Amino acid sequence: MPEQPTAERIGFLGLGIMGSRMAANVARAGFPLTAWTHTPGKAERWAAEHGARAADTPAELARESDIVVSMLVDGDQVATVLLGENGVHEAARDGLLCIDMSTIGPPQTRRIGEGLRERGVRMLDAPVTGSAPRAQDGTLTIMVGGEPADFARARPLLEAMGRLIVHVGALGQGEMLKLINNSLGAANAAAVAEALLLADATGIDLDALVEVVSSGSGASAQLELKSAAMREHDFTTLFKTDHMLKDVRLCLEEAQTAGVPFPAAAHARDLLIAAAGRGHGEQDYAAMIEAAEGLAGRRL
Prior knowledge:
300 residues; alpha/beta; Rossmann fold; N-(1-d-carboxylethyl)-l-norvaline Dehydrogenase, domain 2; three-stranded mixed sheet; 13 helices; 13% strand; elongated
């Protein structure tokens, strides 16, 4: 019988709402896994639960890995753990591949990629769409930017975390598509919130609204995912308001650079700002309903 190839050793940076679930799927798929996160003791507890190792620094993690995945909050964090003191670059070996699955700005992705390339490290950007439940069951959509050969190498690992995995172009293009997707989602969520308020104000039964619209041209994933949470004012965090606001702002920056207006995203940004200002920054972006309620002067 031919010898089976040895699974590549994976390092996972970031164990937040999404990262912890994604890394768990990597461990379940049989990849040797080392984990690190900013919070002291968290990586050790997570590793003990999932049969992995914990590293004290990103550099230590890189020393034990063939592929390093980062799933962090923003571009500054990604730059720090990959290129900063005790970062991945300090222990980079020939053939190391970094896959950033965070959602950050495309220009920063390309700058980080250039910094890694100068140290002989390759990079893909591979942001995801799908909230915590899809991270939990390994059915995320993953959009990947970078060299085709690197994508082919990374695909078995990405398949442990996602169902739809698409190579969308050069480094940074994964991030651009993700920002457009999230901004469109935020715009749809804003429309759902405002439709619920209008229906309520005009005496429409909200159960009837959801049933009819779900089967018609106004149907959307946001109606399915967020209408119940908005009606119940249940903002249990699946995707933080602050994180959605960050993504929409980044998209609008790129839209401005490209000279393309995106007013629906700008309106969603304003509702997200208002929701965060009402204290919902750490809660789910379904809290946009409270910003819409404030504008309408009524509550569901």
